[in-house]
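I had to read the description of the data format several times before I understood it. For illustration, here is how one protein appears when written out as sequence plus structure tokens:
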Amino acid sequence: MDFYSFINSKDIRAHLESINYQFSSLQAAWLVHECHTATMQEKHAAWREIIDTMPDMDMPIKQEDPPKSLHAFLRNYMALEDRFLREFYDTDGQYAYNYYEPEYYYDTWKCDLLVDHHGIYYRLDECLKEALEKAKDYYKACEAVVYRIDLTNGNRIRSDFDQAGNIRRVCPRYDLFITEEQIFFDTFSALAKTISFPLPFRKGDILYYRDDSVDYCGDPFVLTATAAAHDNETVRLLRNGKGMILWGYFQHEDGTLYREWVCGYTNLEWYKGTLRGKKRILKALSNYYKGKIDAVLFANAYRQILTEEQERSFLPYHITEEERNLAGLQE
């Protein structure tokens, strides 16, 4: 199977293909899980091929009673997904449905599934129809996120649909208590800290995080280094389930820089847009880290760009172009 096709980043995909990188069973299984576009059916087919054609491996994760066999874990994971899918479509008991509008995907706390303006639905077909219509109106790759709510205890099962109505993933979202099944679903998150790939990016590259499935493109940042194993902050992040830690400089709205970590999984791509305004500082910083300019020249460019943008922000844009010319404010 072409496991390259499960890589979200086109730049990382092209790099690994160019070096003919061979994935381990663990890497391939994790890539399939992380893919934003594959349907649940396609993921299960890929995992079954891993079980049938690739060697079994230990699961190098730290969990209470962690699974030991990758093959056994994948079989149990698929069985559990199938079970929750049956429960999602189950028509017995007291239940209802609701969905998140796309703008809530990154701030789900804003939307109460039981009392938001949609109310609740007692028919899945009606809820899914409206959710898909919202997704198609929002942007091309948008998913429809639908919940089945158990009205006796508030527990939820989440299913994500692509715009053709295919399920991409299904998982429990239990509010009142955490179950063994929910912990089991989190095993892929624990596995993330053990996964790494050779990346094509180098110090000074300007990157951004891209996720087409929720129409999210992060702000550009300048890569400064991959994390060192002895770095205390990196050790803390790895313990909290973050893998392949990279570090870079991002910008506040006022143009000032701050250092932050980013997970270098398979969503990072080179930023190829035009850097305007305060974002020009990132280009200067990139040149500094690539050795094209020295620290003094970067500092001067940093100060000059901030000064220019500060002056620009005070220009009286409310006056007409003719008035601007008369006042000597033409650009």
About this structure: The radius of gyration is 24 Å. The first strand starts at residue 95 and ends at 100.
